[in-house]
Amino acid sequence: MVAESDRFQWKYVVDAFLDWQIYLSLFMYWGIVCPLYGISLFLPTIINQLGYTSSTAQLLTVPIYITAAVLAVVMAFFSDKQGTRSPFILFCMSFIALGFIICIAASAHGGLPGLVYAGVFIATCGIYPAFPGNVTWLSNNLAGSYKRSAGMAIQIGVGNLGGAMASNFYRAQDRPKYLLGHGLELGFVVAGLISVVLLRLNYIRINKKREVAGVAGEEFTSEELGHMGDRAPTFRYVL
Questions:
Q1: pTM of the full predicted structure?
Q2: Which of 32, 69, 130, 183 could form a cystine bridge with 92, CB 3.0-4.6 A?
Q3: Which residues contact 132 (CB under 8 A, 6 or more apart)?
């Protein structure tokens, strides 16, 4: 941990724009938010195209969202209890990928609406627990309140462009199978999974390097450490 400066400087905003972890975390964010927007916008349409009526399609979304909400709270609780983020994010994103793989396989085969629904169910139950974890993880690893604010704004602001992309994934001409939409979602999830692994490996490498250096921080004032933020030798990244 490091002391945080309470005086605003543009340096902190510039530091956020130059920080490698923010840009890598964007791919993690897109790997979650693209499926999130795609599912949110088109879930009733997908279910309706499986042969259910419009009112039934709306009702069939309810169990999915209730289960996902409960899992989000459970995952957040255990993530905080363990003091780690990436294993839970990886676990949830693996379920997102599994869900879309099921959707692609069942849709390509045809005549399996129940299996497509199960795939969407699994994917959604991975999306909602993963989303808060991915935002919290970056927040934990940006030191300095102003840099953290700027960094999270970049992640969320640029990351939400995923909504613009996802809104064009499920095209009318692709119904009822929507293979292109499911495939694009899966591609973003895989990119997100890779970014989570890369983030974790780099955090481990940097933490070990600082441990080996054995700098306790006595040679720096608290103000100097505050200016360094997460680059201070005493700072350890949350895994």
A1: 0.89
A2: 130
A3: 72, 76
How many angstroms separate the CA atoms of 42 and 167, rounded? 8
Residue 197 Cα distances to 41, 130, 166, 201, angstroms: 29, 14, 24, 6
Mapped onto helix, strand or coil, the DSSP state of residue 95 is helix
In 141-175, where does DSSP find H-type helix? 145-159, 161-166
Which residue in 135, 169, 127 sits closest to 36, CA to CA?
A: 127
Find the angle CA(94)-CA(95)-CA(98) to the nearest 5 degrees: 90
Positive or negative, the CA dihedral 139, 141, 142, 145 is positive
**176 preceded by a cis bond (ω within 30 of 0):** yes
- 101-106: list long-range contacts, CB under 8 Å, 24+ apart: 101/186, 103/178, 103/182, 104/179, 104/182, 104/183, 104/186
Residue-level pLDDT at 90: 97
pLDDT at 6: 61
Q: Distance between CA atoms of 40 and 18, rounded to whole angstroms?
A: 33
pLDDT at 88: 96
pLDDT in tens, 207-217: 998 888 776 55
Average pLDDT across each block of 10 residues of the chain; the chain has 239 residues. List them in order.
Answer: 62 87 95 91 73 72 89 95 95 96 90 84 94 94 88 93 88 84 94 97 93 69 70 87
Q: How far apart are CA 97 and CA 209, in angstroms?
A: 33
